[in-house]
Amino acid sequence: MSGFRDGRLAALKAKISAIEAGGRADSESLPFGTPALDRCLPGGGLPLGQWHEFVGEGMEAETGASPAAFAALVAAPLARRGEAIWILRRDDLFAPGLVGLGFPAERLIQVCARDEDEALAVAEDALSTVGVAAVFAEVEAVDLTAGRRLQLACEKQGATGFVIRRRPYGAASRRGATGSAAATRWKISPAASEPGPGEFGLGPPRWRAELERCRGGRPGAWLLEAAAAYVWEAENGPHPLRLVAELGDRQLAPPQRVRLSA
Amino acid sequence: MRRLAAVDKAGRKLGLFAGQKATDAMALVPDLATAEAEPEADATALTALADWSVRFSPAVAEDAPDGLFLDISGVDHLWGGEAQLVADYRARLAANGIFMRCAIADTPGAAWALAHFGKGAEIIAPAGGQADLLAYLPPAALRLEPEAAAQMERLGLRLLFQILGMPRAPLARRFGQHTLMRIDQAMGRASEALTFRRPPHPWFARLAFFEPISALEDLQRVTRDVAVRLCERLEREGLGARRFRIAFHRVDGEALPLEVGLALAARDPARIAKLFAPKVETVDPGFGIEVVTLEAEEVEPVAGRQTRLDARAEPAVEDGLAPLVDRLSNRLGEDRVWKSAPVQSHVPELSARPAAPLAPVPPRAWNPEAPRPMRLFRQPEPLENVTALTPDDPPSQFRWRKQLHRILHAEGPERIGEEWWRGDIDEISVRHVRDYYRVENQDGGRFWVYREGLYEAGTPARWWMHGVFG
């Protein structure tokens, strides 16, 4: 009798873990190739088959340029594998700019949604489509329900969502609530570039990326650079983003946590 | 001079005829009721009638001012025969208060002659038998030119058999080549091109119902049923279509057309019905729908596909992306789903154009060495309080969107001129030259700004923000 019960329990446990993994036993991840960053992420890389949130501050909350550029670079290896869809509210994404950063814009399909709900519905539809690897959605906010729905859509085919939070021009943010359904949340702000020695002008674009929240990982802050931006030769590195420096953040840095627990 | 344009049955009995002087008619019938002729309204009504008649045949041509040609080859069996088709047509027209004379013959010419001059309002000529029926009609039945008809009248040629037996050469000499052509067209020796309302094509399916339907579920179901019919035929021929047009014909004669477009030619009835589903919801069935017709357009060959054994292999475009694109472009509108394609232009806003979502675009289509922003503003925004050294230094600070930006690094200028070869010669001006700079502010924000025109001493330069790099 107990043997029978143990068997049943094991079967149920396996079933539950299968449900938790979204029906996919192998939850893949996309490593950045930088140990300092990868060790903060669960599974040693950006988890695939989930959705990630990219937030900008100040002016970037309106233009959404830096979060979009950063998300595009993070997703570039994915976009080479499958189809990519970019959902916009404002039609101001410029494909030549994406190509300059090293994103394969030739596969990118752009969709202009009329409102927030439509944008989220399109994102859900695109995420659950066979063959789509990355879906970018520029929306104002994702509430809990919408976030959960996005997550379910991601799990259907293993597509990865990149939500770029963007406020409509000249409007105060209507919804401050952020979904906790996102696997990771990044705050992206542009950082001063450094031209190479003896060079003038601007160096490769740099961003300050703060991993504010990460399910199953640790937060952190880094200075990253798109080393292969605006050059002809195709990048051959594993990831288009290169670590420049690890940034200590007063709130997020581990030393403080040690002191708190002491 | 006012003349009668048309006369009704009662009027004809009193001796009135079309073309009669109005004063003569009034003298004949003092209490004659007349109404102003409206040729434009008549033409519109005829067009509407032609559209309505599509339920009987997809090929309908107008014969102004008061006739229609229907090519019913291959469709009469849907009614169980030509006589049944005519009876149905007559009944439906009568329900709308329209009475018709009609004839079915091998050629449009013979059908016209019999419908206008034949004995009886309904004549169905047996195949190849139009010559006997035409023999006792007047020459005018051949749609001759007025001079030729008058000439025949003068020569005492009252009936067609007198003319049909004549040798061709003298006939042509006397009455003109046109007469000969009309005879040949009526007898089927020459073909006649009709201008159909819609060009006839074979990709057409139709379902008629004994009882008018109006429930939404029924409409959805018949959409699928009619799609199955058409798609079976498409599949047999190895074809698919990129555009489907469905029309719900209401009892009151209104036809409600809907259309869906597909990114790739397809013939899967379930998918087509699904695309129609949200649009069918908008259909107002009124007192009921009695006929539904489906047409396929942009028909092209579709390579048959093998079902893959390995489900984990890279999925084909037809499986996922194409249906997604179809769903989105039919739901949001075709101009809201696109892919950026390169254009050979160095003017930034012209260098990318929206192309079809599944159009092939070459990789690295734009030169990555010329940095372009992530966000390009459709309308460049003016910069205020710009401090820049003349003549061609980048700005050292400016105000944009109520915020002061101090520039630490700058790159440029990249001079972009207008495409002077496209416009008129006198519109060319140095004011259309733009000097672009990539600049970085104190926080690391990267922008694409430009100065309009060349430097001119005394006039302040105008600066614009065209994009943000991020």
Please outline what is shown here.
The complex is a heterodimer of chains A (262) and B (470). By secondary structure, chain A is α/β, with parallel strands linked by helices.
Topology, pairings included?
The complex is a heterodimer of chains A (about 260) and B (about 475).
Chain A: H1 2-20, E1 29-30, H2 35-38, E2 46-47, E3 51-55, H3 60-63, H4 65-81, E4 83-88, H5 95-101, E5 108-112, H6 116-127, E6 132-139, H7 144-157, E7 160-165, E8 184-191, E9 206-214, E10 220-226, E11 241-246, H8 254-261
Parallel strand pairs in A: 3-7, 3-8, 4-5, 4-6, 6-7
Antiparallel strand pairs in A: 1-2, 8-9, 9-10, 10-11
Helix pairs in contact in A: 6-7
Chain B: H1 9-13, H2 22-28, H3 39-52, E1 60-63, E2 67-70, H4 82-95, E3 102-104, H5 108-117, E4 122-124, H6 130-134, H7 146-154, H8 160-164, H9 168-175, H10 177-187, E5 204-213, H11 216-237, E6 239-250, E7 255-266, H12 269-280, E8 289-301, H13 321-332, E9 337-342, E10 352-355, E11 375-382, E12 384-388, E13 395-400, E14 403-416, E15 434-441, E16 446-452, E17 462-468
Parallel strand pairs in B: 3-4
Antiparallel strand pairs in B: 1-2, 5-8, 6-7, 6-8, 9-10, 11-17, 12-13, 13-14, 14-15, 15-16, 16-17
Helix pairs in contact in B: 5-10, 9-10, 11-12
Determine the mean pLDDT of chain B: 85
- What is the CATH architecture term of the domain at 28-168 in chain A? 3-Layer(aba) Sandwich
Counting H and I runs of at least 4 residues, what is the number of helices of chain A?
8
N-to-C span of chain A: 49 Å
**What's the shape of chain B?**
elongated
Q: How many whole angstroms does the radius of gyration of chain B measure? A: 34 Å
Multimeric status of the protein: heterodimer
The general outline of chain A is: globular
- Overall strand count of chain A: 11
User: Helix amount of chain B, in percent?
Assistant: 25-40%
The main sheet of chain A comes to: 9 strands, mixed
Strand content range of chain B? 25-35%
